[in-house]
Design a protein that fits this description.
single chain; mainly alpha; MetI-like fold; 2 domains; 14 helices; 0% strand; globular
Length: 280
């Protein structure tokens, strides 16, 4: 009787909770749906009152106008090149650093780890001026190297991977050592194959962070042909004035790669979060 009563109470209060979560989900999805629909509207449909939800016809004129008004294709190319390069280099450094801190013993390990972790609490505004001076002295302003190299050190992804690498049993590493594997062989044949979910999650975080980066590309580039999408969107807003249908079209195009990366890595990302929750 007691179990049945508890079950009925759970079902009774589960419906309001479900409705509340559904409402919150709809509120979160609403801006994206409105952006998607507005990208296909005309200027008159965007400013219509009462608001017009669906465009009269889905056309691609807004997307074509975006490319005509600003070098949007160049912004897109710059963002893809810098983001892919930054993500790849950051993950290489994060994987090797996390492996060293999690599974190897070396002098001043704890001190170096505390120093690295403290970098997470340093605001970007504090380090951006010294970084810019270094890049300027090296002659890397308005170059891809100047955009990429200063942002490849990812403390967050290193700490994230380190916490996952620690959960890998040392017995696997000892067995690999008995078979004659060195440090790098253990990394590529033992650590990485058993950490694909965590690496996918860290890669997603790194990609999103670099894709939406605004401050550093704004400072290190002053040539329009070297600008990235977040800055290029600002150009469009200035030129287009109140043409929100064009802004929505540009915004929709700018988030497509992010959605694609998330769809590809969604399964591994969810598995990583689930495993972290179980182990934590």
């Amino acid at each position: 009787m007691v179990k049945h009563k508890k079950k009925s109470l759970f079902r009774k209060y589960n419906i309001p909770v479900f409705l509340l979560l559904l409402l919150i989900a709809l509120l979160m999805v609403f801006p994206f749906v409105w952006m998607f629909l507005s990208a296909f509207k005309t200027q008159a449909e965007v400013y219509a009152y009462p608001p017009q939800w669906l465009p009269n016809s889905f056309h691609l004129n807004n997307f074509r106008k975006v490319f005509e008004m600003v070098p949007f294709g160049r912004f897109y190319y710059n963002t893809i090149v810098t983001t892919v390069a930054q993500t790849a280099l950051q993950m290489i450094l994060s994987i090797t650093a996390a492996y060293a801190f999690a599974k190897l013993d070396f002098p001043a390990k704890r001190a170096l780890y505390m120093f690295m972790q403290s970098a997470m609490f340093v605001p970007m505004a504090v380090s951006v001026i010294p970084l810019y001076l270094m890049v300027a002295k090296l002659g890397l302003v308005n170059t891809y190297l100047g955009l990429i190299l200063p942002q490849i050190l990812g403390v967050f992804t290193t700490v994230l991977l380190m916490s996952f690498f620690k959960s890998i049993p040392d017995d696997l590493l000892d067995a690999a050592k008995i078979d004659g594997c060195g440090y790098y062989s253990i990394l590529w044949q033992v650590i990485i194959p058993n950490s694909k979910n965590a690496i996918s999650a860290a890669t997603l975080f790194a990609f999103l962070s670099h894709w939406k980066s605004y401050l550093w590309p704004l400072l290190v580039t002053n040539n329009t042909n070297m600008r990235t999408l977040p800055i290029g969107m600002k150009y469009l807003i200035t030129e287009a004035s109140n043409d929100y249908h064009l802004m929505m079209a540009a915004a929709l195009m700018s988030i497509l790669p992010v959605l694609l990366v998330y769809v590809i890595s969604e399964e591994n990302f969810v598995k990583s979060i689930t495993l972290s929750g179980v182990k934590g």
